[in-house]
Amino acid sequence: MVDLSFRARCLTARPDAVAYFDKTSRGRPMDVTKVRAEFPILQRKVYLNSCSLGALSLRATAYLESFQELWHELGASAWYGPWWERLGDLRSRVGRFLGAPVGQLALLPSTSAALSVVAESVDYGRRNRVVCTELDFPTLAYQWAVKPDVELVVLPSHDGISVDPEQFAAAVDDRTAFLATSHVLYTTGFIQDLNALADIAYKAGAYFLVDGYQGPGQIPVDVTASKADFYTTGPLKWLCGGPGLSYLYVRDELVQKLQPRITGWFAARDQFTFDLEHFEPQDDARRFELGTPALPTVHTALGGQEIIDEWGIEAIRSRNRALTEHLVERARESGFQLTIAPDPGDRSAIVMIKHGDPPAAVAYLAERGIIVDHRPGHVRVSPHFYNTIDEIDQCITTLAESPR
Ligand SMILES: Cc1ncc(COP(=O)(O)O)c(C=O)c1O
């Protein structure tokens, strides 16, 4: 007889992952050796690029193996049983983690897809302006750059680090449909004040849309308390869950009020009646969904999310702050200039180090087993809770030796 119990499957698939399944480390000091044992890349490399891609854990691998095993064993029946259950598990776990009440979270294939669905949920007849910043990720602005009837306002950054809320206040008015910006700026690691921006949007009657891809997993986030109307994030980076999914939170009254013009059968209330003549949307945020989600990622995302939940976001943030401040100090001691927030309280674990030839520096480090990334004019170093002070020292010492 086939055993559909997922836990049992995981235990068979990878016995060394067993020890972690039932333990809750929340509230206890972080045992870094134990954390690191979950992530094999840390035994092979100095991995300091979590803002591009979080490390893959043994836990995620065990989930993935169980996914494959169920596929071998059950074929399509896996879909109707355990895979469907996993989808529900992920939705509830992520909802709890983000502070999104039940029914206010949609799963989509990427941040770009989530933003597209939101951008196609409103009417631009009376309000056709969208305000974002030059420090946001381009995929945000592109949603409206392709709509000829929308006036896209891209606010400049005067210090290259952040954008003053006063600039938003001056640009967001009664013609504005969306104030759309990031929680954490991928360009500088700056953490924006969401409540201040929400107030600006609400005062003008505009929607407040947040691209939170660089936030959850490295800083505490409560989407309801943030006062965002829409908040997108995903498992790829700080949540260590891999590519292929995004999470979209929609504020409660908007769930019922809006009906996206991009859609699919997962958004339909009676998904399995196969009625082409009538489309009735789901009553909850699933009306923002499209089609079949990436099931392998649903599994790897569960693995990453479990680990983050077990250690607890407060402990992770506190460790990341310590790593970040050490990195900042070491880089400055070595003579590097940084593009980061002046106030450490506004900084996240994305550290931008000015460099004359960033691609060459990144290649130099990679040849020596140190993985970082580059963005124009900068080497970008992003430690996560599984990194150590020694790794940061190694990275900065090697960077200082690289041709500048
Ligand atoms: C802040 C931010 N938003 C959006 C994206 C792109 O997301 P996706 O490829 O899922 O559309 C990235 C990717 O690095 C990002 O850093």
Structural overview:
It is a single chain. The protein is an alpha/beta fold and 404 residues long. The protein is built from 16 helices and twelve strands. The strands form three sheets. A seven-stranded mixed beta sheet has the order 2-8-7-6-5-3-4, sandwiched between helices. A three-stranded antiparallel beta sheet has the order 9-12-11, with helices on one face. Strands 1-10 form a two-stranded parallel sheet. Helix 8 links the parallel strand 3 (129-133) and strand 4 (151-155). The chain is globular, with a radius of gyration of 22 Å. The termini are far apart. The model is unreliable at 1-25 (pLDDT under 50). The structure holds pyridoxal-5'-phosphate. Pyridoxal-5'-phosphate is lined by residues 110-112, 137, 139, 182, 186, 211, 213-214, 246. Pyridoxal-5'-phosphate binds at residues 110-112, 137, 139, 182, 186, 211, 213-214, 246.
Which spans have pLDDT < 50 for at least 5 consecutive residues?
1-25
Distinct helical segment count: 16
Using the alpha-carbon principal axes, give the shape. Answer: globular
Q: Which kinds of small molecule does this entry bind, naming each only once?
A: pyridoxal-5'-phosphate
Share of residues in strands: 5-15%
The beta-strand count equals 12
Q: Radius of gyration from the CA trace?
A: 22 Å
Major sheet: arrangement of strands? 2-8-7-6-5-3-4
Q: Could you say which structural class the secondary elements and strand pairing correspond to? A: alpha/beta
Question: How many strands, what sense, and barrel or not for the largest sheet?
Answer: 7 strands, mixed
Taken in chain order, the helices and strands follow as: HHHHEHHEHEHEHEHEHEEHHHEHEEEH
Q: Give the proportion of residues in helices.
A: 40-55%
* Mean pLDDT score: 93
Terminal CA distance reads 63 Å
